[in-house]
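Researcher: Please generate the 3D structure of the following complex. Treat every line as part of one assembly.
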Amino acid sequence: MNLEFTEEQVMLQDALNKYLEKEYSFEQRQKLSRNGVGYSEENWQNFADMGLLGVPFDEQYGGFGFGATGLIVVMEAIGKGLVVEPYLASVVLGGQLIQQAGSEVQKEALIPQLIAGELKLAFAYVERNSRFNLADVAFKAEKEGDGFRLSGKKSVVFNAETADKIIVSARTAGDQTSKEGISLFIVDKGAVGLSSRDYETVDGLRASELDFDGVIVGADALIGSLNEAYPVIESVIDFASAAICAESVGVITQLREKTVEYLKTRKQFGQPIGAFQVLQHRTVDMFMVEEQMRSLAYLAAIRVTDGTAEERLKSVSAAKVYLGDARPIVGEQSAQLHGGIGVTDELDVAHYVKRLTMLNVLFGDRDHHMQRFCQS
Amino acid sequence: MNLEFTEEQVMLQDALNKYLEKEYSFEQRQKLSRNGVGYSEENWQNFADMGLLGVPFDEQYGGFGFGATGLIVVMEAIGKGLVVEPYLASVVLGGQLIQQAGSEVQKEALIPQLIAGELKLAFAYVERNSRFNLADVAFKAEKEGDGFRLSGKKSVVFNAETADKIIVSARTAGDQTSKEGISLFIVDKGAVGLSSRDYETVDGLRASELDFDGVIVGADALIGSLNEAYPVIESVIDFASAAICAESVGVITQLREKTVEYLKTRKQFGQPIGAFQVLQHRTVDMFMVEEQMRSLAYLAAIRVTDGTAEERLKSVSAAKVYLGDARPIVGEQSAQLHGGIGVTDELDVAHYVKRLTMLNVLFGDRDHHMQRFCQS
Amino acid sequence: MDLNYTPEEKAFQLEVRSFLKESYPKELQDKVSKGIALKKEDYVRWQKILAKQGWVAPGWPEKFGGPGWSPVQKYIFDEECGTANCLRTVAFGLVMLAPVLMEFGTDEQREKYLSDIYNSDVWWCQGYSEPNSGSDLASLQTRAEKQGDHYIVNGSKTWTTHGHYADKMFALVRTSKEDRKQKGISFLMLDMKAPGVTVDPIITVDGMHVVNQVFLDNVKVPVENLVGVEGEGWTIAKYLLQHERTYIAQVPRSKKQIERLKVLAGKELHNGKSLLEDDRFRAKIAEIEIELLALEMTSLRILSKMSAGQPPGSASSLLKVKGTEVQQAITALLMEATGYYGFPYFKEVLKEGWNEEAVGPEEATFLAPHYFDWRKSSIYGGSNEIQKNIMAKAVLGL
Amino acid sequence: MDLNYTPEEKAFQLEVRSFLKESYPKELQDKVSKGIALKKEDYVRWQKILAKQGWVAPGWPEKFGGPGWSPVQKYIFDEECGTANCLRTVAFGLVMLAPVLMEFGTDEQREKYLSDIYNSDVWWCQGYSEPNSGSDLASLQTRAEKQGDHYIVNGSKTWTTHGHYADKMFALVRTSKEDRKQKGISFLMLDMKAPGVTVDPIITVDGMHVVNQVFLDNVKVPVENLVGVEGEGWTIAKYLLQHERTYIAQVPRSKKQIERLKVLAGKELHNGKSLLEDDRFRAKIAEIEIELLALEMTSLRILSKMSAGQPPGSASSLLKVKGTEVQQAITALLMEATGYYGFPYFKEVLKEGWNEEAVGPEEATFLAPHYFDWRKSSIYGGSNEIQKNIMAKAVLGL
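Model: Done. Output below.
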């Protein structure tokens, strides 16, 4: 049993934190978030140069082979910095789909490009009525010659706007909610018949509604086995859920620190408001949630790496349920304790609160994961 | 619209409060609770003399005709005094069953006796596996000559030990959980074949397990129509639920007042512990629950008197759900704020906490009533 | 005890209902029900209709133009307005300043201002909070120095709702420095068009512009614009805050929002069932419904006491805390109901005439921003922590 | 990061498991699993078995007889003891006094007391709280006056767990009056059989007698029974409290209680389904399971830091608060699971040899009293409010 990061991981963490301190003030982040594409290509290349994009990939494809536990250090820093670059969309979601289900040919072709920052991916899996059920896929892929014809819509696809390729889940057999008969395809963003409606998200990222109007792809666009993609999707979403739980730890840490700092400086009734016991205990509640959330995020990362399917499900859902508790205790209370300025666009705190809240929704909210926890 | 008590009701309340102040110190209550039968026959006669036992009954049978809203004043006082006399068992449950379902003959025979304190009833409706489902009745009543033969067991029958007659719900047709086919019978406590195991309850009352081993009763033992007792039982239990919600308001008021008093007198760190903001806000939470609970108790009393079945269900269940919230906010916190002495047998607070907790269980806990609220 | 309306109360209910049906503009109803941002002219339009009917100021005494309703009638009116999706009248003039003028103003002030307020001819804003005095309102630092027949006002006010719409502001200012900070505060009315007044927008977390910071730089205010006694404005401030807090509870609005939530949850599907059929989600709605049921009954009990001549007391704090908790809980569930569709952020949706297709459920587009923005309700009007301090002191004697 | 045990750790786990299987008396296992009240001789019996094996004091350094385990081994041992329904060793001597003697005692004191503690030959109790000093421990008033080679002790201690079993007490007493209340406190060991010691039972809300009030009336204590420096007992008190708090978290015990809860909820029927199949009830269990999962991992992270030489810091307060919250939540659900069968109150059920049929589910008879009694856990060992004050100060620098 060993719960420490490796020396290499600690070094990477230091380098990343240093970079973000220098290049990623809140004002810079807001500019990037609102610059039209939602991030900086320069940062992305610097991430690639630091080796950041290779963290979770196997060493044989040029990655660090750190797995999900190694990813914690990156994701915590991303949370702390409110980083808007498409790390989750491209490296975590896109990358893991290729890593876990891709053929040898696909891995060799795509992963080194991903790691080098030359290829960006996005994963399209949400549909209008699917809510959090990954098996609810109405989007169709039908045989067309050697290849397939893709038809349907996907919703809230993060960073699809700037992705080079989209990986999409499609129904190739079975009923709309059957776990059997789902397949994954990789499609060029510029493919004929693929249109998108791009927008800002409430937490400062970019996402798109995608419309596939009979997009033709070759047989080599299939990732993994036909009809058998569900377990891969579930596993990758669990992997990404563990990653965003680590991101949330970064967000929570910032909110707790910023709130404590504010309580020390803001004066009312002739004293810092941190002198009020009720507010002190609220920050203690934040601290306890932070520590417990960190524990569950670590546990989830460990279990998506080496656990059984049941351990993976249970630990990921436990962490996501707890993240749901963090919404009121850390998110809402951070805003409350900052008073009026806590709900202004100008202050970073409001944006950390937004991200924390939306991380709660991403990959299934508290109710969804509570149900999954109880059923597993 | 009018939310005030009548002058008569206020006078009754004053008389009762004066009586309890004089005769019902906590020490006296504890003695009564542990005297073997669990209450005082003298108090009971005094209640009768004050007219207390006639409050909810129609005037034509000698009652005050105050209904459930008039009962509020009695039940709040009972809650405040932790009164152990069998008012709920005999007047509210037993009395309402007769009042709502009894024949004219039964009413004329029984209600005046009840009001005079000469007859005490108990209602047996809980079974080993029924939990809070009033329709789950395995207890059997079979035709036997002109009358019936009763067989089965009933659990946690309050004040059965000292009751003159037991009213029991029995299955006369249909499946074990069907709402059709349930009937009510009134049985002499001394009937042949009826045995009981009597015990103290955790909140200082007395209850019994009853075993009916082929008890024979006449046709006149039937209360209401054969097979059609379910709506009556539901309505009477709702009536009694509204009554105990009013009782809980009395208990909550006492706990809040006693806790505030303790916070003013107990000194730690050189000041009354009431100077600590965290404890102040906890007592404010208690106060808010008290006011909101009072509102819901009044609403429930109004609706069991004049509401539609849906209004009755919804308002009773709303009040019982809120009572569930009062358990931690008022009950647990009262103990917590009293520190060590809050969990000693010697202090009245512990016994108010017990009663509040068990009122939560009686007639269905928070989960049960949440389900009922959502389904109605 | 009886919750049934008397025949007279029933008749009044029908009267209100049919008036609203006939006179409440359809366009406004649409805007309110869809949550589209309301403009100044929307408020003015509706208030003028109400004024014409004699119903714009239910709280005013008859001698000032109030309708002379009983508490139950006021409750019925609020209830019906909520049901009809009426926009709420703007509180600053009608609910806040007017009672102050009636209680503390001179006859001249009442004459000069009340009818403009009644007829929505002048838009008022409130100058209470300052950047350094939020919960600790009495620590305010805006100074007013008397020079001849004017006060010269310097300082800054913040969180000024609709400051950019306003013609006038009533403000708390410091006219002298005293030992106790509550002393030396005065209540002034000033002109927002006067030289030295600058209004800077504050963009809130939802991207909207509703509140402002107002800078006061040597603003000249005639001495006759002082309300009450110089240096005793704190008494007026407290009087006004109690009125505000009761106004904040908004039970009828919350009932309407719960309806909206149920409609949305009834349409959103999860594993083939609607969210409304999901035990967990349904129970969360029920918890709010029950709290609101209690709150409504508590309001009625307070009304009943007030009819009998008793003051509302610290009940206004309870109404404020519970009222805003309920409102916030509803915004959270509305957001939760939308699932992934909380992400798309289209500010344009709140503008009139926006005709693009929504992403996700039609009414869902602004629910997440609304949730974030509504955090303010437990902060404004005296934060909920302050309300609990007030209750601890007053109700519990701690 | 890796939660898997190394081969050495696995081997140790098997060793512990097979020892417990062979050596832990069946009668004790039955009593613990049924929740029957434990007697002094039960504790002594089990502790003597552990002592013989060399495992009674996992926290002691090897030179005093500890087993020299790594933190992970200690974790494994606790885990296995929990799984096997072992009774917990009594903390007063082994976990509280012994470390104090090792850190602050003289060689003579260590020699005289440690082996009796190790072998359970002397039963200790704790004299910390007083009727007027609960959360504010440092305000204690029991006086010890030096007269020749004795202290004369006067005062009263309360909440003395197992005071009626104890041979000796370690106590905080005031040896001089100083400006700061934390000064002038000394740490004394006294004989419970000495003249002037009276033990009065306190009956708790569950009707049980576990705690006591102890009166000290001119009790003579030899000066050599002073631990550490006279007047500096507060340092020792704080040292000891941190040990106590970590001990209070009891993760393995809570895991076992959740199992018990699931068994009970799996048997109790509601509308034909078991409570465990009821979404609402299941979710309430899950909430506790998740908090406990987090708490276990937090404990492991602290262990991991301690292996690397870092001190636990204020983590002991977090463990205490969360640990007791989880314990209390479990007692509440155990009670809820019994439904109406929370009412019957049979004190006799906790006594050995009670053979009557239970009313309701067999294991349910004492769950409601247990819920009431367990309110104490957020009060003792420094109330949870005090723990939050400590965390606010230490962790947050407020």
